[in-house]
Amino acid sequence: MAGERAATLSDVAREAGVSLATASRALNGSDRVVRPELQERVLAAATKLGYTPNANAQAMARGSTETVGLLVKDIADPYFSTIAGGLADEAEKHGLLVMLCNTGGQAEREQKFLAALRRQRSRAIVLAGSDTTDMGHTREVADLLTSYLDGGGRAAAISQPRLPVDTVVIDNHGGAKALAERLVGLGYRRAAVLTGPEDLLVSTERHAGFAEGWLEATGSKPAYVADEFSRDGGHRAMSRLLEDGPEADCVFAVNDLMAVGALAACRQAGVEVGKDLAVAGFDDIATLRDVTPGLTTVRLPLADIGRLALELVLGEPSAELRKQSVHGEVVLRESTPPRS
Amino acid sequence: MAGERAATLSDVAREAGVSLATASRALNGSDRVVRPELQERVLAAATKLGYTPNANAQAMARGSTETVGLLVKDIADPYFSTIAGGLADEAEKHGLLVMLCNTGGQAEREQKFLAALRRQRSRAIVLAGSDTTDMGHTREVADLLTSYLDGGGRAAAISQPRLPVDTVVIDNHGGAKALAERLVGLGYRRAAVLTGPEDLLVSTERHAGFAEGWLEATGSKPAYVADEFSRDGGHRAMSRLLEDGPEADCVFAVNDLMAVGALAACRQAGVEVGKDLAVAGFDDIATLRDVTPGLTTVRLPLADIGRLALELVLGEPSAELRKQSVHGEVVLRESTPPRS
DNA sequence: GGCGATTGGGAAAGCGCTTTCCAATACGGT
DNA sequence: ACCGTATTGGAAAGCGCTTTCCCAATCGCC
């Protein structure tokens, strides 16, 4: 059985006693009409032979594929996996296959993947989470993307409006600012921010948004500690903050993962969050909705963002760059009770 | 610029003043030697023209691709996304691209994806989490897989040893059994299991393993409540259990997600986990390591499992089906303190 | 009934690459 | 010098499909 090579369209045509052209037309249905009788004969022959079209050959002949590429920093991170889930569902609806590219945040890998997707003649590319402020790399990516676009490809980005493509803009600034305002409204007066590395756009945007809101509402600037944009980063940052003596009554970690690390650090230090100190995060990661105390955060419609990005990249190409804004919604939970 | 179609190998050859064959050889390096001088000329021409090989054409000519397919039930589920992360990293090392197929647990979609991957002439397919006890569907999948294998493809599964392919067998039974023993060792005497749907293999295996361990150690059979294999399922199941009056001093949820739902249900019902009741899960999902109380669970090396699966599927094909076992490790945390 | 207008099938030309198979040149040994 | 043997470049045959283009057959209409 392993001997007989896969049936090709010619085999089907021969079996059905028609020409190659007719066989192709009968199977694709599309362009021109085939007499029903022949049509059936071809279909029958195809099933009999267990024919499977060769997508690569089709891609060659048609000059277009059925795949879209998705670049994420780390698919194991719930932020990205949720986005990926939404995008994958949408892709399925369109009959598209998703190429998952896990960049690990390495510029070099990102470029390699971009090149690979170009080679594959993938129909579209969605970039999520490669927003760095490293201009050298951004330029490099932009160039690759441009030549990909020139070749007829389509691309969109999530959250990084610095790339020359359509993008789903996440209102990090606004969300964080709104959060700051709500916290001040709850009675908090001295804030600290646990932020990620400086060259990470999401992180700096959220930090800046929060700081702006806080400044406008209280007239003072929040302190901050920077570390990794991860659970452990949050843990370390919070520990350092606590060591230095917590001047703050309220801490904003720029994402939920860091916030959870911070929660753990507080627990270990004997600081009771929700009483001695308030903590808030950003993203509203589903698996983290049950931590205790319930984490105040800014909810992002992550799955929708993935869906949106695909719609954007698949939609009618337009002359000017499209920006699709997505806003977060502050969700107050027990980690930031009203302050008496 | 959008006008000039992408440079082809012929263009490169012409530009370099060599034949198509030479150009191809110069670029791939492999099979035969090309005079260094020509080699350089070709390379120069390629960069000058911004040449990108067409992977589809290469696939056609070579008869093999650079992609592997990964089927998961839900990429947004941290269990799968962690596996996917490990697999993606490994794939990157091998220069392979990953096709992500999100089946949503729907048999029909799973089959569609399998067909699509076959059409793409994917080098290999890894199936994760399609382990159902629905024999009809399993049979169908097995058939598709068999014809894929006959066509020269390679496939491996994760956790479902009922498919006729190499598989990374997760010792769900043993892990759950070990957990049961440890819990009994801690002093617990009456257990209840929160389990998923009956046709979900992981769920039934874990349930059975736990029940076996419990029975052997205490002589009694744990009660159980079935619901969805998710956070909400765990929440509902636990609520029901509490309503019926908790005969149990210890609850095993067959995965961490359900366990977290259970934790939430307890909190809402005023039951203090770690004191009034013990709760344990399975998987040791990273993002859940900071819930309170710390969740006792069975740690699975998820990322390694993904890596292993790819290695398995890429390794030397062997006559008999290979099974690569992976065992979990019980991790005791505060949710199951020693019982005085 | 005759004519142009449809209609539907088939031959064949690619799509962009790899890889035989050949030919030509260079090299070594005696 | 001469012949056999490596080398290395090129022509061309595919890989499996789509799609023009062409042609025969059928249709409709005056």
TrEMBL record, chains A, B:
It comes from Nocardioides turkmenicus. Keywords: DNA-binding, Transcription, Transcription regulation. PANTHER family: HTH-TYPE TRANSCRIPTIONAL REGULATOR GALS (PTHR30146:SF109), LACI-RELATED TRANSCRIPTIONAL REPRESSOR (PTHR30146). InterPro entries: HTH_LacI (IPR000843), LacI/GalR-like_sensor (IPR046335), Lambda_DNA-bd_dom_sf (IPR010982), Peripla_BP_I (IPR028082). Residues 7-62 form the HTH lacI-type domain. SUPFAM superfamilies: lambda repressor-like DNA-binding domains, Periplasmic binding protein-like I. Pfam families: LacI (PF00356), Peripla_BP_3 (PF13377). GO terms for molecular function: DNA-binding transcription factor activity; transcription cis-regulatory region binding. This is LacI family transcriptional regulator. Coiled coil: none annotated.
